[in-house]
Amino acid sequence: MEKLIVSDEDTILEELENYRKTLEKEKENKKFHKIYELKKFKKKKEFIEDIKSDIALFDKLLQKMKGLGLTESDPKAERLIKGLKEFLKEKRKVVIFTEYVDTAKHLESILQKEFKKKVLSAIGNLSRTTILGIYKNFDAQYPKQEDRYDILFTTDKLSEGFNLNRAGAVINYDIPWNPVRVIQRVERINRIGKKVYDEIYIINFFPTEIGADFVKSREIAQTKMFMIHNVLGEDAKIFDPGEEPQPSELYKRLTTFMEEEEESFFTKVVREFDRIMETHPELREELKNIPKRIKVAKKGSANELMVFVKKGKDLFVGYQNYLEKQPKAVTFEEVFEKIKAQENEEKLPLSDNFWKFYHFILEKSSFERGRGDSPRSLQEQAYGVLNTLIKLPSLKPYFKFLSDIMEDIREFRTLSEYVMEEIISWKDYLDSPEELIPKIENLKNEIGEDFLEKIQKHLKDFEEEIIIAIENQKF
């Protein structure tokens, strides 16, 4: 975050005024922002105090970061430099990847200072000179070879489209969230064509044990390794020198944990799935043709219903104990043991309570799946206002538009929080709906009368909704 330092209030006001004018010029982007007038805020004083509190918090964080002295002594960067020197002694060129531009800028000066002109930085927009430098110094197929640079330092900008096979080592200064990126980075130096090295090296930096405690790095790494297993096909050592590139080896690494460590829920599920597939391999093909809607009942320790709703990447799990009035949203982990069944367990007919609570949970899921508390609350409030407005005769010409917004809230949730807040404010006009017409017209102009049609066209390949309902019946 860049901090603007000014000496007087006039300069601040001038900067803000210039920014306001810039926003007003961007008419085509109006639906992505809104200009708020501070004097109209109901809680103007509280808002200003909150801003001051945020600034004070940032200042405090900056001071704490400064106190760590990482700009003067960075142990991670020091270890990187030590490793680079070892590779350079072997006459081996090196490519360093980092996930973050800020990290790249921090390291750039450190590397330039230590290795001077041997470092080529490829950060941000690449100039023709930089691109030629990459070709001449790191592409074994390029006709005009040079040895001006031995270290190439870059972000994922170069993880695709470049041959870097004159380098004999890739250093991942941090591991990207997308595991495919790890593979793409390695592929830059492991190219089919001109062979330069008999062996290539992959070096990964992982968080310290202290850092791992905060970011749950083991669980994240397990997830990445599982994904890489499906993409990579086990033909290379990626994460560890001890890896053996043989069938299912990476998968075994994923599902292996030390006895003194707590087994993650992800690992537990994978173990169970692996056991079932190993015992009943014929299920693998059957799962490919499984229906999108499943309703099943079995014996259980309580009369209860679990409904799983998956749409796109969102997963909602609803739970209803028949002795309670309201369903609740839970995690998959909370109901995992409840949905288990014995191998030859008999399927039961659905109870009289099933349909009542089934639809109750689905109604709740339309607002809760995959969303945070604040956005969900806004959507529910906006939906309630629209549900009232669509029954008012004076707004009949706008019923379709209002209905389209309700469908977006229920199915896609693409409209911004700003739109939700605008709709919620309409509740003040329920007694005089004719005054709402200009506001509805304004919103229609901003997001487009055919916005839902465009969304549906854009999401035509959107994954179909999957609903699995499992009822437990107590005996």
List keywords for this structure.
five-stranded parallel sheet, extended, 10 strands, 3 domains, Rossmann fold, disordered N terminus, single chain, alpha/beta, five-stranded mixed sheet, about 475 residues
Describe this structure in words.
By secondary structure, the protein is an alpha/beta fold. The chain has three domains: 9-68, no CATH class; 75-205, Rossmann fold, CATH 3.40.50.300; 292-475, no CATH class. The chain is built from 18 helices and ten strands. The protein has helices spanning 9-25, 44-68, 75-89, 101-115, 128-138, 179-187, 209-215, 217-232, 249-254, 265-279, 283-288, 332-335, 354-368, 373-389, 399-412, 417-425, 437-447, 451-458; strands spanning 93-97, 119-122, 151-154, 167-172, 201-204, 293-300, 304-311, 314-321, 328-330, 466-474. The strands form two sheets. Strands 2-3-1-4-5 form a five-stranded parallel beta sheet, with helices on both faces. Strands 6-10-7-8-9 form a five-stranded mixed beta sheet. α14 (373-389) packs antiparallel against α15 (399-412). The protein starts with 8 loop residues before the first helix and ends with a strand. The model is unreliable at 1-7, 210-215, 231-235, 241-262 and 367-375 (pLDDT under 50).
Short account of what is shown:
The chain is an alpha/beta fold. It has 3 domains: about 10-70, no CATH class; about 75-205, Rossmann fold (3-Layer(aba) Sandwich), CATH 3.40.50; about 290-475, no CATH class. The chain has helices spanning about 10-25, 45-70, 75-90, 100-115, 130-140, 180-185, 210-215, 215-230, 250-255, 265-280, 285-290, 330-335, 355-370, 375-390, 400-410, 415-425, 435-445, 450-460, and strands spanning about 95, 120, 150-155, 165-170, 200-205, 295-300, 305-310, 315-320, 330, 465-475.
